[in-house]
Amino acid sequence: MAAVAFYYILIVTVFDFLLKWLERYLDVTQRKTTRQVDAQMQQLATANRPAMARSVTASQEPALQASKLHKAYNNVEVLGAVSLKIQPGEVVSVIGPSGSGKTTLIRLLNGLEQIDNGEISINGQPFIHLNRQGQQKPRFMENAEHRLNIGMVFQSFNLFPHLTVLGNLLLAPRYHRLASEAELRQHACELLHKVGMLEHAWKYPHQLSGGQQQRVAIARALMMRPQIMLFDEPTSALDPEKVNEVLQVIESLAHEGITMVIVTHEMNFAFKVSDRIVFMEKGRVVCDDTPQAMRSGQHPRVDAFLKDVSLA
Q1: 37-50+88-108+146-305 domain in CATH 3.40.50.1000?
Q2: ABC transporter domain: which residues (predicted)?
């Protein structure tokens, strides 16, 4: 009996040790790296070369157009007949009170949520629509090729926790084989340098602050060289002192002529960088106008919304 007890304790001890080792190994929050950015990566980041832009056929069509979008959850209408037209290079901010449908709209624009009615096109080509055939229930249709034309930055960063910063940037373009490994690494280093995160290339997301993670998320979206960037309240999950570092990156993109749609509660930022501002309430577009017109008092509902905001 003593021998049986001994072997039982030995087996339990060994299995307990192996289980704890496996848990530690799989716990991505315990991963640390001391690897430093080497001279080669610094050189790649600062090399002068033509931008690796995806070729786009010149067109007078809107970069992004949404027509009469409807969306409801459990028979509760969230969006009703929302239409939006955005020209190439235009920066449009979407503002409004909480619950007005801003996030739902931006999730419909890139297909993260299915529309109940309406259609979305990119450069005049159908992207998302409902296919109706006789009396049958309409079918949700999406041209998946256009998905690569849209980059998305989320409120909560959504970085892959088991990948390094560099790994997060390289994952999608590797999968879609956008370029050679050397070109992708160079482009990743350039973007990390651009957003001030090159020195953190080998770190894991849990080693970064919220502002740093969001800057990495922006660089990751840009890796696919999208024509259109969508931002869903990119600063809402950040501490106040980290907000400006993210807004500065977005502002620099606006100056570069990237087409952008920004859902935000940062009013001063929206009025500073936007060509147009869309005000939403109760699932409807109440006002779509320039920042100058919004400031002029032409829209009473917007004035009421901004009455406690000191616009610079």
Answers
A1: no
A2: 64-307
